[in-house]
Design goal:
The complex is a heterodimer of chains A (about 210) and B (about 100). Chain A is built from 10 helices and no strands. Chain A is an all-alpha fold and about 210 residues long. In chain A, helix 2 packs across helix 3, helix 2 runs parallel beside helix 4 and helix 8 crosses helix 10. The longest helix of chain A is centred in the last third of the chain and has 25 residues. Chain A starts with 5 loop residues before the first helix and ends in an 18-residue tail after the last helix. Chain B is elongated, with a radius of gyration of 22 Å. The chains are: A mainly alpha (about 210), B mainly alpha (about 100). Chains A and B meet through helix 1, helix 2, helix 3, helix 6 and helix 7 of A and helix 3, helix 5 and helix 6 of B.
Protein backbone atom coordinates (compact mmCIF):
# COMPACT_ATOMS: atom_id res chain seq x y z
CA UNK A 1 0.00 0.00 0.00
CA UNK A 2 1.29 3.39 -0.94
CA UNK A 3 1.89 5.62 2.03
CA UNK A 4 0.49 9.09 1.88
CA UNK A 5 3.23 11.69 1.73
CA UNK A 6 3.63 13.66 4.97
CA UNK A 7 2.84 16.94 3.23
CA UNK A 8 -0.47 15.56 1.93
CA UNK A 9 -1.36 14.25 5.39
CA UNK A 10 -0.64 17.68 6.86
CA UNK A 11 -2.75 19.37 4.15
CA UNK A 12 -5.64 17.00 4.82
CA UNK A 13 -5.31 17.66 8.55
CA UNK A 14 -5.29 21.42 8.02
CA UNK A 15 -8.34 21.17 5.72
CA UNK A 16 -10.20 19.06 8.27
CA UNK A 17 -9.32 21.45 11.08
CA UNK A 18 -10.31 24.43 8.92
CA UNK A 19 -13.61 22.74 8.08
CA UNK A 20 -14.32 21.88 11.70
CA UNK A 21 -13.53 25.39 12.81
CA UNK A 22 -15.71 26.92 10.08
CA UNK A 23 -18.56 24.59 10.93
CA UNK A 24 -18.28 25.35 14.64
CA UNK A 25 -17.89 29.12 14.31
CA UNK A 26 -19.66 30.24 11.15
CA UNK A 27 -22.56 27.83 10.64
CA UNK A 28 -24.31 28.77 13.93
CA UNK A 29 -24.74 32.23 12.32
CA UNK A 30 -26.91 30.85 9.52
CA UNK A 31 -30.17 32.24 10.93
CA UNK A 32 -28.63 35.66 11.52
CA UNK A 33 -27.14 35.82 8.01
CA UNK A 34 -30.41 34.66 6.43
CA UNK A 35 -32.34 37.29 8.42
CA UNK A 36 -29.89 39.97 7.32
CA UNK A 37 -30.08 38.77 3.70
CA UNK A 38 -33.86 38.79 3.87
CA UNK A 39 -33.90 42.38 5.08
CA UNK A 40 -31.48 43.40 2.33
CA UNK A 41 -33.27 41.66 -0.53
CA UNK A 42 -36.87 41.65 0.67
CA UNK A 43 -37.30 38.25 -0.97
CA UNK A 44 -37.05 34.79 0.61
CA UNK A 45 -35.69 33.18 -2.54
CA UNK A 46 -33.05 35.84 -3.05
CA UNK A 47 -32.18 35.72 0.65
CA UNK A 48 -31.57 31.95 0.44
CA UNK A 49 -29.30 32.38 -2.60
CA UNK A 50 -27.47 35.24 -0.95
CA UNK A 51 -27.00 33.26 2.27
CA UNK A 52 -25.57 30.29 0.39
CA UNK A 53 -23.20 32.49 -1.57
CA UNK A 54 -22.13 34.26 1.61
CA UNK A 55 -21.21 30.97 3.28
CA UNK A 56 -19.35 29.69 0.24
CA UNK A 57 -17.34 32.90 0.03
CA UNK A 58 -16.73 32.90 3.76
CA UNK A 59 -15.52 29.34 3.56
CA UNK A 60 -13.14 30.15 0.72
CA UNK A 61 -11.80 33.12 2.67
CA UNK A 62 -11.79 31.44 6.07
CA UNK A 63 -8.01 31.74 6.17
CA UNK A 64 -8.39 35.52 6.08
CA UNK A 65 -10.78 35.59 9.00
CA UNK A 66 -9.01 37.11 11.97
CA UNK A 67 -9.82 35.30 15.13
CA UNK A 68 -10.88 37.82 17.74
CA UNK A 69 -13.23 39.75 15.48
CA UNK A 70 -16.80 38.60 15.68
CA UNK A 71 -17.52 36.01 13.00
CA UNK A 72 -21.11 37.20 12.66
CA UNK A 73 -19.95 40.71 11.85
CA UNK A 74 -17.50 39.34 9.27
CA UNK A 75 -20.27 37.28 7.64
CA UNK A 76 -22.55 40.34 7.49
CA UNK A 77 -19.81 42.24 5.68
CA UNK A 78 -19.46 39.47 3.09
CA UNK A 79 -23.23 39.24 2.75
CA UNK A 80 -23.68 42.95 2.19
CA UNK A 81 -20.76 43.17 -0.25
CA UNK A 82 -22.16 40.25 -2.22
CA UNK A 83 -25.60 41.82 -2.24
CA UNK A 84 -24.26 45.11 -3.56
CA UNK A 85 -22.12 43.44 -6.20
CA UNK A 86 -24.80 41.00 -7.32
CA UNK A 87 -27.27 43.77 -7.85
CA UNK A 88 -24.60 45.57 -9.85
CA UNK A 89 -25.63 48.62 -7.97
CA UNK A 90 -22.64 49.15 -5.78
CA UNK A 91 -21.62 52.43 -7.31
CA UNK A 92 -25.10 53.85 -7.49
CA UNK A 93 -25.85 52.60 -3.99
CA UNK A 94 -22.83 54.37 -2.59
CA UNK A 95 -23.86 57.56 -4.36
CA UNK A 96 -27.34 57.30 -2.84
CA UNK A 97 -25.86 56.65 0.60
CA UNK A 98 -23.56 59.66 0.24
CA UNK A 99 -26.48 61.85 -0.87
CA UNK A 100 -28.65 60.73 2.01
CA UNK A 101 -25.81 61.07 4.47
CA UNK A 102 -25.42 64.73 3.70
CA UNK A 103 -29.05 65.42 4.58
CA UNK A 104 -30.07 62.74 7.02
CA UNK A 105 -27.01 62.43 9.18
CA UNK A 106 -26.41 66.02 10.02
CA UNK A 107 -28.71 67.15 12.75
CA UNK A 108 -29.38 67.32 16.43
CA UNK A 109 -29.11 64.41 18.81
CA UNK A 110 -32.07 62.12 18.25
CA UNK A 111 -33.85 61.07 21.38
CA UNK A 112 -36.49 58.37 21.73
CA UNK A 113 -39.97 59.58 20.92
CA UNK A 114 -41.10 59.29 24.54
CA UNK A 115 -38.37 61.71 25.61
CA UNK A 116 -39.83 64.44 23.39
CA UNK A 117 -43.34 64.32 24.84
CA UNK A 118 -44.87 63.37 21.47
CA UNK A 119 -45.88 60.02 22.85
CA UNK A 120 -46.28 58.88 26.45
CA UNK A 121 -43.60 56.51 27.76
CA UNK A 122 -45.47 53.23 27.73
CA UNK A 123 -43.73 49.88 27.94
CA UNK A 124 -47.11 48.09 27.85
CA UNK A 125 -47.81 49.61 24.43
CA UNK A 126 -44.69 48.13 22.85
CA UNK A 127 -45.11 44.80 24.60
CA UNK A 128 -48.67 44.49 23.29
CA UNK A 129 -47.64 44.91 19.63
CA UNK A 130 -48.10 42.01 17.25
CA UNK A 131 -44.88 40.79 15.65
CA UNK A 132 -46.25 41.05 12.11
CA UNK A 133 -47.08 44.73 12.47
CA UNK A 134 -43.61 45.39 13.88
CA UNK A 135 -41.97 43.54 10.96
CA UNK A 136 -44.14 45.41 8.49
CA UNK A 137 -43.06 48.78 9.86
CA UNK A 138 -39.38 47.71 9.99
CA UNK A 139 -39.64 46.71 6.33
CA UNK A 140 -40.92 50.21 5.51
CA UNK A 141 -37.79 51.88 6.88
CA UNK A 142 -35.17 52.96 4.35
CA UNK A 143 -32.35 50.44 4.01
CA UNK A 144 -29.88 52.94 5.52
CA UNK A 145 -31.95 53.00 8.69
CA UNK A 146 -33.22 49.42 8.72
CA UNK A 147 -29.79 47.79 8.53
CA UNK A 148 -28.19 49.52 11.56
CA UNK A 149 -31.37 48.92 13.57
CA UNK A 150 -31.26 45.18 12.89
CA UNK A 151 -27.53 44.88 13.38
CA UNK A 152 -27.76 46.64 16.73
CA UNK A 153 -31.08 45.70 18.29
CA UNK A 154 -31.39 42.16 16.94
CA UNK A 155 -27.83 41.00 16.29
CA UNK A 156 -26.14 42.92 19.10
CA UNK A 157 -23.29 44.42 17.06
CA UNK A 158 -21.43 47.41 18.50
CA UNK A 159 -21.44 50.78 16.72
CA UNK A 160 -17.88 50.11 15.54
CA UNK A 161 -18.85 46.72 14.10
CA UNK A 162 -21.87 48.20 12.31
CA UNK A 163 -19.63 50.94 10.91
CA UNK A 164 -17.35 48.27 9.48
CA UNK A 165 -20.19 46.26 7.95
CA UNK A 166 -21.94 49.26 6.43
CA UNK A 167 -18.78 51.19 5.52
CA UNK A 168 -19.80 54.45 7.15
CA UNK A 169 -18.28 56.36 10.09
CA UNK A 170 -19.38 55.52 13.63
CA UNK A 171 -21.06 58.93 13.94
CA UNK A 172 -23.21 58.13 10.92
CA UNK A 173 -24.11 54.73 12.38
CA UNK A 174 -25.28 56.40 15.59
CA UNK A 175 -27.28 59.02 13.75
CA UNK A 176 -29.00 56.44 11.53
CA UNK A 177 -29.62 54.02 14.36
CA UNK A 178 -31.20 56.63 16.62
CA UNK A 179 -33.31 57.95 13.76
CA UNK A 180 -34.38 54.44 12.83
CA UNK A 181 -35.61 53.79 16.37
CA UNK A 182 -37.39 57.11 16.50
CA UNK A 183 -39.07 56.58 13.10
CA UNK A 184 -40.12 53.07 14.01
CA UNK A 185 -41.56 54.18 17.36
CA UNK A 186 -43.51 56.96 15.64
CA UNK A 187 -44.75 54.58 12.94
CA UNK A 188 -45.87 51.96 15.47
CA UNK A 189 -47.66 54.56 17.52
CA UNK A 190 -49.37 56.02 14.43
CA UNK A 191 -50.34 52.51 13.32
CA UNK A 192 -51.91 51.77 16.72
CA UNK A 193 -53.86 55.04 16.67
CA UNK A 194 -55.02 54.53 13.07
CA UNK A 195 -56.08 50.97 13.83
CA UNK A 196 -58.12 52.12 16.79
CA UNK A 197 -56.01 50.29 19.36
CA UNK A 198 -54.96 53.52 20.99
CA UNK A 199 -56.34 57.01 21.45
CA UNK A 200 -53.91 59.82 20.58
CA UNK A 201 -51.89 60.72 23.66
CA UNK A 202 -53.16 57.67 25.58
CA UNK A 203 -51.31 54.70 27.01
CA UNK A 204 -52.06 51.07 26.15
CA UNK A 205 -53.23 50.53 29.73
CA UNK A 206 -55.92 53.21 29.23
CA UNK A 207 -57.82 50.79 26.98
CA UNK A 208 -58.78 50.89 23.30
CA UNK A 209 -60.15 53.90 21.49
CA UNK A 210 -63.88 54.29 21.96
CA UNK A 211 -66.05 53.78 18.89
CA UNK A 212 -67.43 57.01 17.47
CA UNK B 1 -32.58 47.74 38.57
CA UNK B 2 -30.64 46.62 41.61
CA UNK B 3 -32.24 46.31 45.04
CA UNK B 4 -30.00 49.16 46.13
CA UNK B 5 -31.19 51.25 43.21
CA UNK B 6 -34.81 50.47 44.02
CA UNK B 7 -34.33 51.56 47.64
CA UNK B 8 -32.53 54.69 46.52
CA UNK B 9 -35.43 55.58 44.21
CA UNK B 10 -37.95 54.76 46.93
CA UNK B 11 -36.32 57.07 49.43
CA UNK B 12 -34.89 59.58 46.98
CA UNK B 13 -31.37 59.00 48.29
CA UNK B 14 -28.50 60.48 46.30
CA UNK B 15 -24.87 59.58 46.37
CA UNK B 16 -22.83 62.21 48.18
CA UNK B 17 -19.67 61.35 46.27
CA UNK B 18 -20.73 62.53 42.80
CA UNK B 19 -23.20 65.21 41.78
CA UNK B 20 -26.24 63.73 40.06
CA UNK B 21 -26.49 64.41 36.33
CA UNK B 22 -29.68 66.03 35.07
CA UNK B 23 -32.53 64.32 33.18
CA UNK B 24 -31.43 66.16 30.03
CA UNK B 25 -27.86 64.90 30.35
CA UNK B 26 -29.04 61.35 30.97
CA UNK B 27 -31.53 61.39 28.10
CA UNK B 28 -28.91 62.77 25.72
CA UNK B 29 -27.00 59.49 26.02
CA UNK B 30 -29.85 57.06 26.66
CA UNK B 31 -29.20 55.16 23.41
CA UNK B 32 -25.49 54.77 24.13
CA UNK B 33 -26.34 53.76 27.70
CA UNK B 34 -28.71 50.97 26.66
CA UNK B 35 -26.40 49.91 23.82
CA UNK B 36 -23.52 49.46 26.26
CA UNK B 37 -21.41 52.04 24.42
CA UNK B 38 -20.51 54.30 27.37
CA UNK B 39 -17.31 53.85 29.30
CA UNK B 40 -17.62 52.42 32.80
CA UNK B 41 -17.60 55.74 34.62
CA UNK B 42 -20.12 57.39 32.24
CA UNK B 43 -22.31 54.31 32.42
CA UNK B 44 -22.28 54.42 36.20
CA UNK B 45 -23.23 58.10 36.30
CA UNK B 46 -26.16 57.58 33.93
CA UNK B 47 -27.25 54.44 35.78
CA UNK B 48 -27.16 56.36 39.06
CA UNK B 49 -29.52 58.93 37.55
CA UNK B 50 -31.98 56.42 36.10
CA UNK B 51 -31.92 54.44 39.34
CA UNK B 52 -33.39 57.32 41.30
CA UNK B 53 -35.28 59.41 38.72
CA UNK B 54 -39.00 58.68 38.78
CA UNK B 55 -39.51 60.99 35.77
CA UNK B 56 -37.09 59.13 33.49
CA UNK B 57 -37.79 55.58 34.60
CA UNK B 58 -41.05 54.96 32.64
CA UNK B 59 -39.31 56.13 29.49
CA UNK B 60 -36.38 53.86 30.09
CA UNK B 61 -38.76 50.94 30.56
CA UNK B 62 -40.58 51.90 27.34
CA UNK B 63 -37.30 52.02 25.43
CA UNK B 64 -36.28 48.61 26.72
CA UNK B 65 -39.71 47.21 25.83
CA UNK B 66 -39.42 48.70 22.33
CA UNK B 67 -36.06 47.01 21.75
CA UNK B 68 -37.35 43.73 23.14
CA UNK B 69 -40.31 43.75 20.77
CA UNK B 70 -38.09 44.45 17.76
CA UNK B 71 -35.80 41.58 18.79
CA UNK B 72 -38.72 39.24 19.44
CA UNK B 73 -40.32 39.98 16.06
CA UNK B 74 -37.09 39.57 14.11
CA UNK B 75 -35.79 36.52 15.92
CA UNK B 76 -38.98 34.71 14.96
CA UNK B 77 -37.57 34.85 11.44
CA UNK B 78 -35.18 31.91 10.98
CA UNK B 79 -33.62 30.18 8.00
CA UNK B 80 -35.74 27.40 6.49
CA UNK B 81 -34.38 23.95 7.48
CA UNK B 82 -33.74 23.06 3.86
CA UNK B 83 -31.43 26.08 3.50
CA UNK B 84 -29.09 24.62 6.11
CA UNK B 85 -29.00 21.36 4.12
CA UNK B 86 -28.45 23.30 0.92
CA UNK B 87 -25.52 25.25 2.37
CA UNK B 88 -23.94 22.10 3.76
CA UNK B 89 -24.37 20.37 0.39
CA UNK B 90 -22.79 23.35 -1.39
CA UNK B 91 -19.84 23.26 1.01
CA UNK B 92 -19.53 19.51 0.48
CA UNK B 93 -19.50 20.08 -3.26
CA UNK B 94 -16.40 22.25 -2.93
CA UNK B 95 -14.73 19.34 -1.19
CA UNK B 96 -14.51 20.28 2.44
CA UNK B 97 -17.25 18.21 4.05
Amino acid sequence: MRREPAAETARRGARASRGTSFEAEALPCLDAVYRFALRLTGSETEAEDLTQETFLKAHRSWGQYTSGTRVKSWLFTICRNTFLRDRARSRRHREIVAERSRGADSGDAVQPVWATGEMPPDAAFFTSLVDDSVLEEIARLDEDFRVPLLLSDVEGLTYAEIAEVTEVPVGTVKSRLFRARRRLQEALYAYAVESGFLRPGARASDGPKEAT
Amino acid sequence: MTLFGFLRRLFGVRSEAEPMISCEEALAVVHEYLDGELDASQHERVRAHFDVCARCYPGLQAEEAFRAVVRRAEEGCTAPPELRERVLAALAAVGEY
